Amino acid sequence: MLIHHQIPHYHLFLRLHSIPTTPESWLDVAKHFEKTWNFPHCLGALDGKHVVIQAPCNTGSEFFNYKSTFSVVLFALVDANYNFLYVNAGGQGRISDGGIFKDCSLYKKLVKNQLNFPEPETLKGMQRKIPYFFIGDEAFAFTDSLMKPFSGTHLKGSIQRIFNYRLSRARRTVENVFGIASDVFRVLRKPMLLEPAKAEIIVMAIAHLHNFLRKSSTSSTLYMPHDMFDTKSPLPRATNETMSSLLPLKNIPRKPTDNAKIIRDELALYFQNEDPLVHQDNYA
Length: 284
Hints:
37% of the residues lie in helices and 15% in strands. It has helices spanning 10-13, 23-37, 97-102, 105-111, 159-184, 196-213, 217-223, 258-274, 280-283; strands at residues 16-17, 42-53, 70-78, 84-92, 121-122, 129-130, 133-135, 146-147, 246-248. Its cofactor is a divalent metal cation. It holds the Pfam family DDE_Tnp_4.
């Protein structure tokens, strides 16, 4: 069994921080998102999962989650090429997903403007300066620096549905990373029979191994074959979706800021008028 005293620099091991530290390196992340996924100003796709574990001893309901199972919570930020930029694991399943995210070092630096994001810029053909941001789903708070979909049902071909399609398409990066990990590291396919601290070690080991295997073209091709994804779909995703031990975060409605809504509206207009994809009207 892998235990903490067998791992050199144990506390460093439990952190995976590959996030850029300069505006120039963030711009490189954004460039790849725009080139590969047609989503400008995106600095990473954010998602989280409840990693199901056995009922821990003497913890009461601390790890009991909204699905009536026990779990530790994993948050990850992923770039356009399926690499982890940031991973945080080990949050108690009982805590609201938003509460766990707010306790992450990434969030704390985000709200304090300590991540050295590039300065806002205008998009081609548009007038308003748009900040750089992360993208997430309904589980996260909607802010100037974290874009999420329009809620509710919208008419086919509307700018809201087009925006949601484009954001969902870009977010496949982080969803597919979870699919890749569970396909290869099958410990993620069923509840871990481990105490929370050891489950955290396993999750972080998987994250480190994932990035290591992605570094060279040889290991990356073996680890993540091209046919692992449904490439014919406009929403490419891992074809093996066996993630029974990875539960989605709970969606919690949150009131957005007025400026965040203005930014999203500007992006929606841009996707419709200035940078449409050939097939987007068929799927939005």
